[in-house]
Each structure stands twice: as C-alpha cells, then as structure tokens.
Amino acid sequence: MVTTHDIPAHDASEALAERIRRAEAEGTPLRIVGGDTKAFYGRSVQGEALSTREHRGITEYDPVELIVSVRTGTPLAELEAALAANGQMLPCEPPHFGEAATVGGMIATGLSGPRRPWAGSVRDFVLGTRIITRQGSEQRFGGQVMKNVAGYDLSRLMVGAQGTLGLITEVSMKVLPLPGASQSLHLDMPLAEALEKLSEWGRQPLPLTAAAWLDGALHLRLEGGPSSVAATAERLGGDELKADFWEALREQRLAFFSAEDPRALWRLSLPHHTPVLELPGVNDADVLYDWAGAQRWLRSDLDAETLREVVSRAGGHATCWRGANGQPVNDPFAPLAPVVEKYHRNLKAELDPKGIFNPGRLYAAF
C-alpha cells in the first residue's frame, strides 16, 4: 500500500462539517460547489456556496490491488494523471467539461464517457465513500472491496444524486490497467446499416470499447491485446480515425454540440438495439448515436411532452441537456413515476429533512 504525495493534500473535512452543522441548525440551504464545470446539469440551486476545492488529495493508492481513495475536491485531471503514471485509468471515462472538474463532480453527476457500455458506469466502480451528514458527522460507507450488501448501499446511492443527500468528502474506486493497444476506425455507412452492424457485432467477442454514428459514418474504437486489435481492425476495414475524436465526443467539443445551435439539445437514454425513433421533423443529421445507440444526442424543437412520450414508449427517458440557444431549462429531467417519486421523497426526508443539501437540484419539490 502506498500513499501518493504528488498532489498537494489538504483535509478540510472538519471545516466543512462545521459549516454543515451551522446550516442544519439555522435551516440555511447550501449550494455545493466543486469545479462548477457541470453546474448546467440540473436545476439551479439557491443557497450559500459550500466549496469542496480545498478538500483534496489522494489518500491511498494501491496499483497492485487496483484501488484508489481520493478526496472529492481533487481535480479530476490530477487523479487521472496519477493513475496514468502507473499505467491505469478510470474505466468509466468520465467527462470533465472544463479544467476545474473535480472528483466530487464526477461522483455527484454520475456521467460516463464513450466506454460506458463495455466497461461500466461511475457507480459500478465505487467501492466506498465518506459522507458528511446533516448533523455534521463524517460517516464511512462501503470499503475497498467489491461485495454484495444488504439494505441501502449509500455509497452508490450518492452517485448521480447531485449532492442532494449529503456531502461526499472521499471516494474509493476500482481502477483498471490501460489497454495494451488501441485503434480507431471510420467507416462510411448509412445509419440503418450501422445499427444493424452494431447489433451483429454486439453478439461477438470483439474488442470494442466505443461506437458512435455521426454524419453518415460509424466511428469505432478497438482496445485490448495488440494482436486482437490488429486482427479486428483488418476484418472490419474502414479508414483510420484520430484517437482524439473520443475525447472531443466525451467533452462535447464536436461541431454537433455547438452552443450556437438555436435548437434544444437532448440526451436520450435507450435500451440497446433500439431502432431509429419516429420523431416529427427529425432526420439523421439531427442525432448523434453514442454507446452503440444506447445514448443519443438530439437537436430538436420538439416540445418536451411529445419527445418524452416517444422515448418512454421505447423504454427510455429524455433529459434536456440545454435549452434553445444554449440556455438552461427549469425542469431538465423526465418526471418521475408516482412510486419512484415516493421513494425519492422518503429518502430525502430521511437523510436531509430540512433540505439543506442542494435543494431542488434534481426536482423542484425536493
């Protein structure tokens, strides 16, 4: 077991706990802030800013056991650099959306990159967390091994909760080795053929770790052993694609994501092998198919109710990522089913009855 000293470390947990105790006593809402690079994702929060930026540093890192523990104010880029120096990576390939992105923002939003369907989500690699509760006490949940648990797995429950249930101060995660070889391909083909091919290849043991369709072409990434990657690339054909395409996709730097587009940008989450959705006024050029089609980015003027009804019938859900002309929206997330909403309310009432943690971040009522 080794402790990493490359990143300047500082434990600010007691100061954060004292601020939370005061907020709980006074009933003052807090707006949790890390790097603020994902502030657009969700509803705006009215409250006093509680910054985690000073609470930073890798506390433990065991490259042999593939486990890292890190404070949540640590810049995400610094964590990734420390892992890369040991030939390892975060398998979920989380987006940054800015140089100031923190580990806490990665956990709070739960967003994953192009490798998600083949490697897993952020939640899949969380082993344990430290959380400051509304009473200002720091509690540890989970540990440093993968195991089944009984009852609530609060560590993974915090992933994607956007800070509405407590303040995450530290997270332990499983990491994986960097692939031995990587090659990206560009294959010109129409959308229907691309979806058919992806469905066919999904049933074969191919070293695929990313697949996206955009502008009349299927983009693929192959990773694994050198011989497997080379043989698969020769079999599939196509032209070589620059590897930085996947970072541009992950960070939404492709022209498709231009904030100058007057239409709203939607993120559609769908079951694998979902066919092309029949959406009024939408053509192939309006959609970017990521995750082999399980995640789709849509540019459209369709009203939210119509769009969400079509996506729901297909077994998925739609999030309004940005409104028209890049503007934020009041209710970006799909409305919850009554039973699911009940569980959300009960959980919030149990962990944060006074609503001091990022109130209204996910939904207006809690």
TrEMBL record:
PROSITE patterns: FAD_PCMH. It is an enzyme of class 1 (oxidoreductase). The keyword Protein transport does not apply. Keywords: FAD, Flavoprotein, Oxidoreductase. Its EC number is 1.1.99.14. Pfam families: FAD_binding_4 (PF01565). Residues 1-178 form the FAD-binding PCMH-type domain. The keyword Oxidoreductase applies. This is Glycolate oxidase subunit GlcE. It comes from Halomonas mongoliensis. The lineage of its organism: Bacteria, Pseudomonadati, Pseudomonadota, Gammaproteobacteria, Oceanospirillales. The gene is glcE.
